[in-house]
Design a protein that fits this description.
Strand content: 25-35%
Number of strands: 10
Order of helices and strands: EHHHEEEEEHHHHEEEE
Distance between the termini: 32 Å
CATH topology of the largest domain: Ribosomal Protein L22, Chain A
Strand order of the largest sheet: 4-5-1-10
Shape: globular
Largest sheet: 4 strands, mixed
CATH architecture of the largest domain: Alpha-Beta Complex
Helix content: 25-40%
Radius of gyration: 18 Å
């Protein structure tokens, strides 16, 4: 921790996405028209249902912090899709979902990003890392003992890069070259495309997934609360 600077406190919410139909129906009524349209564009019904649960639960969580009805929240999206609250609220948040799991992170004042993804042990990750990642990252992936460990190392890097990209409101292509395994887990973009310093840490998630959190600034974020959606 940097002297004189408090670690930003971040609440992490774990959201199971496979819920009863009645819950899906209740959450769908909280979505904005635009959110409902995005859900309807999902090709598969399973994906549509999980989209509804993830975004409806995000509204429930934010409504709890702001003490307003969830369907009255006004959310905006930045140039590259990062969501934020309309108006002058100091609340910052981010959402990521993969398969049957979603994560929501909430903090104040500082930009925050989260990414969760499922492990795919049979995915040929080495060629992608060699083409798009820094040389040190590609070597880290290639040095793994076998395909399963290569996939895990690749995904560890990927979730960290994506968490920074989402926190910064940037494009994924801008983050592929970031070195995210650094001393003190502080990431800076030497190209300047993603300005500033970003503190990154891995998050505990169920087996079969990996996740990472990124917060603006050089100070490691402090998990001030870990919550289950069952508490809502």
């Amino acid at each position: 921790m940097t002297d004189g600077i408090d670690a930003p406190g971040v609440d992490v919410w774990t959201v199971p996405l496979d819920v009863p139909p009645a819950t899906v129906a209740r959450l769908s009524r909280m979505l904005s028209e635009r959110e409902a349209e995005r859900g309807d564009r999902c090709r598969f019904e399973n994906d549509r249902r999980r989209f509804i649960v993830a975004h409806g639960t995000l509204r429930l969580i934010l409504a709890g912090y702001l003490d307003v009805p969830p369907d009255e929240l006004r959310l905006q999206r930045g140039r590259h899709g990062k969501p934020r609250l309309a108006g002058s609220s100091d609340l910052r948040f981010n959402l990521s979902h993969s398969g049957e799991l979603a994560l929501v992170v909430v903090t104040r004042h500082q930009e925050v990003g989260v990414d969760v993804d499922r492990l795919r042990p049979d995915l040929p990750v080495e060629p992608f890392a060699e083409r798009f990642f820094p040389a040190s990252d590609a070597r880290f992936v290639a040095a793994a003992a076998g395909p399963a460990e290569r996939a895990e190392r690749f995904l560890r890097l990927w979730t960290r890069k994506e968490a920074v990209v989402k926190a910064a409101g940037a494009r994924l292509a801008q983050g592929l070259g970031l070195k995210v395994l650094t001393d003190a887990d502080v990431v800076r973009d030497p190209s300047g495309q993603i300005p500033g310093a970003w503190s990154v840490r891995d998050l505990p998630v169920p087996d079969g997934c990996l996740a990472a959190l990124a917060v603006a600034g050089p100070v490691a974020p402090r998990i001030s609360g870990s919550h289950s959606v069952d508490e809502l």
